[in-house]
Structures are given as structure tokens and as C-alpha cells.
TrEMBL record:
Belongs to the LytR/CpsA/Psr (LCP) family. InterPro entries: LytR/CpsA/Psr_CW_biosynth, LytR_CpsA_psr. Coiled coil: none annotated. This is Cell envelope-like transcriptional attenuator. It holds the Pfam family LytR_cpsA_psr. Residues 100-244 form the Cell envelope-related transcriptional attenuator domain.
Amino acid sequence: MMENSAAHLTRRKPKKPKKKWKKPLIITLSVLLVLGGLGFIYQKQLVVFAFNMFASGTVKEALDDSFKTAGDKDAPVVEHTDPFSLLLLGIDQRDNEPSRSDTIIYSVVRPEDNKVLLLSIPRDSYTEIVGRDVKSKINSAYAHGEAKMAMDTVENLLENKVDFYAAINFNGLKDIVDAVGGVELPIKKNIENKSKAHEKLFVEANKPIYSGEEALGYVRYREDSDFNRTMRHRIFLSAFMNRALEVKNLTKIPDVIQIAGSNFTTNMTSDFIVKFAESLYMKDSTPTISNYMLKGEGATRSGVWFYDLSEDDLQYVRGMIASWLDPDATEIIEPESADQADTPDAA
């Protein structure tokens, strides 16, 4: 009996379970590795897909709120892949001051070439103000006729079309910069207003990241030349673009646009902006930016200081812009030389 029992017990000895989990686990790990690899390879596509799924509606609504026509001036029908011109206006409105455009940058974008031209027009440039039949400082155009008069005046000056405009009040710049975690700026020397006639302003040099308040001081500083001031504006634009296009900041774009709110207006439709931004992001690198500033010299009329533009330089710039706007151009005219600050540390 004992022998039978022992034999029975031996026969009933549980078998070791087969390792059935190995195959599913290997398959799962393989799938994860493949998806991880695809995620790395197609990171941009996945980000754009996520944006279109979860954020595009919010962004379009915010952009629709910022849409504002330029008077009776119709915006052209432009494909987001075609070269187009954009007048960037920085409105530095302060207490007891008119809303003049202290920053005027005529830009040309060539999406297919991933290139951008930024042409600074000094705010004190003496020119005809279209719609007023007077000659005055170009920044007065916006004060008297907002975007339409500014666009008409710049078109007349440069003899090239202005397709779109985008105006932002500097009051909204601070929060926008903070929303993307600050910007990198090449400040090699402390920036400080020393004149009692100007508001207090101090920006410390050699910091890795600058806050919105510091970036606002960087673009507002005016105690050196207008040449350096407009150069700082272009440097800031480039720095902010690079920061906003970082993968980690793409999810913050809806917040940035909503923060801009009433401080931002444009006649570009939300569909155009979103399509263009998507194509820009899908490039292998950020756009190559070429800079130029209209040349001239100071002059005084009836005790008022103006900036007289060089006619020779205007002719050169008009030809350069025309080449950038030509969709069939195989070679475009690059600015003759890079900007040089008045002093090595002025930037």
C-alpha cells in the first residue's frame, strides 16, 4: 500500500510550468523597441499629429480672435509654400504717448528654401506718409492710420508689396517670453538706462536665459544708436523663434497665443499661420535668417531730428527684395554684409 501510495505521489508530482510568457514578452519588447525607434525617427511627425489632434482647434480660435483686416486693404491669396512678405510692427505704447510703431521690420519668407530676410527700417526715417500727403517719420504712419497706413507707406518706400502685417504691443512681450521659459540673448555687457528722462532699466550680462522682463528691457533700451536698437530687435526675433520651435515648447504655443491676446493683431488667417508653422517645424533646421538695415544719415528739420535714407541704398534694397519675392528665382540677392554694431559689446 505504501509502495502504491508512493508511486501515486510520484506520478502526481506537478510538472514545471512551461514558460509560455516568454514569447508574448519578447513580442511586446520588440514592438516597444520598434515604436521607440519610430518615435525617435518620426518625432516631428508625431508631434505635429498630436498638435493637430489636441491643440489646433484652440490655436485657431485664439488666432481668429487676433485677426484684424488692414482697413479696406485686402490680404492676398498666398499659398503657405509661396514666398510672401510680412511687415512686423512692434508697438511700444506707454503712458501719455501715441501708439507709434517703434519697431518696423519688413520681412520676406521663402518657405521652400527655409530662408527669411529681415529688413529693419529705422523708425525716424523721413518719407512720404501715404494717406496724409505729408513727409514725416515713418513710425507716425501707424499712429495716424494703424496697419493700413503703415503698409501703404512701406510699400511706397520700398516699391515692393506688403502681403501681411503682424503687430504686437510690447506690453504683451514679457508674458509671452516667460511662457516659453525665457530666451537666450547674446548680452556681453550690462544694459542700463542712465538718463533721468528714461525709465529705469537694467539687464545683467552673460546670463544663460533671460526672462520676459529682461527681454523687454533688451528691446526697449534706447541709449545707444538706432542701428544697435534695431539689431537687438532682430536678434530677439531669432532667439524667440528658436525657443518656440523647441519640441518641449510646442505644447505651450496655445498658451503663448492666448497670452498675446489683444496685444497681437494680424491679417493672416489662422489656417495660413498653422499650415505655415507646421511646414516650418517639419524642416530639418530652423530658418536661415539674413539681416539688413536701411542706411542713411541724421538730419534736423525745424528742430526735429530725422533719418534721411540713402537713395542708392534704397535702390539696392528694392532689387534685393524683388529677388526674394520671385518664386522662380534660382539665385536671390543676399545682403551685402552682416550687420556690425557700433561697439563690440553693443549687441
